Amino acid sequence: MYAFEFVKPASVADAVAALKDDEAMALSGGQTLIPTLKQRLAQPSKLVSLAGMAELVGVSTHAGAVMIKGATPHAVVAAEASAYPALADLAGGIGDPAVRARGTLGGSLANNDPSACYPSAVLASGATITTDKRQIAADDYFQGMFSTALDDGEIITAVSFPIPEKAAYIKFVQPASRFALVGVFVAKYDDGVRVAITGASERGVFRWDEAEAALTANFDASALDGLTLPADDMISDLHGSGEYRAHLCNVITKRAVKKAG
């Protein structure tokens, strides 16, 4: 590690002010940032903690949606988002107990790791991300691997998840990291089905349009028979080839539909 200033604001407004420093970085759960600092891959002169602010922690349900504050730990989501069982189930399967105790929804979405679980829930739910400045639709938020619509210094304060008729999340776990080698979130709403896939593509989380159309017409795993995704933009590494991940997308989507139905 190296010397840096640690700031613990009392409010979101104070945190926003502290982050105006060009060399400052926000610290939420720290599950990605702390290892990054240890490896000197990032060297901010100031860390601005988002932990400990009551206005950034909590789960509530109203108007047919579950709202989760930005600094809410995964373990709290798993325990308190019972109105959206698939979302609670996803949160309860992230990492291990230590990660779930420290990691946060906002931190995961701001980092946008291509294999993280939460982005698939946000995209499949058509969720709305609220920041200190504005509201961002899920379809506009994710912009590629580790890339989002957030401006420098912008803080995620809450995410609103519309509750679907049926939903499920299944991930094929990479056992060493507990990240998704392929993870699929399926959500069925009155106006159609949304399918979001994480862990598979070099472009990060994405919606599978063909699967959505097939499942909107017939919400049954058999509707996916014969559907394939191209392997050319899939991640290929020591854990699995692009072709393997493309194949898993169909397999895991079918499992998610069966679990939801």
Secondary structure: elements and pairs:
Elements: E1 5-7, H1 12-18, E2 24-27, H2 33-38, E3 46-49, E4 59-62, E5 65-69, H3 74-80, H4 85-92, H5 97-102, H6 105-111, H7 118-125, E6 128-131, E7 135-137, H8 138-141, E8 156-162, E9 166-173, E10 180-189, E11 192-198, E12 206-207, H9 209-217, H10 242-260
Parallel strand pairs: 1-3, 2-3
Antiparallel strand pairs: 4-5, 5-8, 6-7, 6-8, 9-10, 10-11, 11-12
Helix pairs in contact: 3-4
Second CATH tier, the architecture of the largest domain: 2-Layer Sandwich
Shape: globular
CATH domain class name of the largest domain: Alpha Beta
Structural class: alpha+beta
Task: List the total number of helices.
Answer: 10
Overall average pLDDT: 94
Straight-line N-to-C gap: 49 Å
Roughly how many Å is the radius of gyration? 18 Å
Taking the sheet with the most strands, its summary is: 5 strands, antiparallel
Strand content: 15-25%
Ranges with pLDDT <50 over ≥5 residues? Answer: none
Q: How many β-strand stretches?
A: 12
What does this structure look like?
The protein has 261 residues and is an alpha+beta fold. The protein has helices at 12-18, 33-38, 74-80, 85-92, 97-102, 105-111, 118-125, 138-141, 209-217, 242-260; strands at residues 5-7, 24-27, 46-49, 59-62, 65-69, 128-131, 135-137, 156-162, 166-173, 180-189, 192-198, 206-207. The strands form three sheets. A five-stranded antiparallel beta sheet has the order 4-5-8-6-7. It has a four-stranded antiparallel beta sheet with strand order 9-10-11-12, with helices on both faces. Strands 1-3-2 form a three-stranded parallel beta sheet, with no helix packed on it. The N and C termini lie far apart (49 Å).
